[in-house]
Task: structure prediction
Amino acid sequence: MKEIYKDKDGNLLFRKSFCAYIDILGFSEKIIQNDLTFFNSYLKTLTEELKHIEYMHDLSGKEDMKSFELKIFTDNFVFGHPWFDEYGESELGNIFEVLSHIQYTFIKSKIFIRGAISVSDLCMDENIVLGPALIESYKLESEKAIYPRIILSNEVVDIVKTHINYYADKKYSPQNKEYLIDIDGFHFINYLYIIFYEYEHPTEYILNEITEHKNIIEECLTSHIDNYKVFDKYSWVAKYHNYFCETFITYYKPEINLEEILIEKSKYIRNINQII
Result:
């Protein structure tokens, strides 16, 4: 079995790595409520997603193709991917595919996640997760991510920009599609792009996927309309959904009627009102 954070003698070692720390929004409230329906859905989705990761990335290392570690405890995920080569571009490509797929899959089960990606020294095995990369990604997730997004540290942003500069026309670089810049300046994973990632899906598939995403967000907005702290997070997802549709759906699938897939502003914008 491949051990990516051990030397040839089996000793643990620190490696420069990309590290992502993500957690599930609202998980504590579900524990307080003893919401077994939610937990059953969470476990089912998690089990299926782990099967996907194993199939695509040899997470167990049985095929000697393993390139990263993933640890899960309660609602927390720690993802560690060593920097293997000079450039780190393929590593970030793996990270985008894995984290986007996790985020998108969970949202389809009405489970939203938040996280951050850093780069620094890290050590991971079946029992230990240790290093400054973990500390930084945890701090970013807990203090800066705020919304259901996976943000990048400044150092990771610099690496992404370096990769973009490899391309003669930077607009067509994969990184220009995989990451977006939010209004507060944070770069984050454009997880909806996973529906276009590496495959030429038919229009019907794309329409069904983006419509399902829209319906889930609208349902969450409606059910949390009286809890602004939670509503605000779904409002962010609604804005992101609309931006993605207006930018990517119209480019790749112009035959799709944009009005059918956009979320009406009245559903996610709250206004100041008079008492009477």
Notes: Strands lie at 15-24, 69-73, 76-82, 113-124, 129-130, 150-152, 179-181, 187-189. The chain has a mean pLDDT of 94. The longest strand covers residues 113-124.
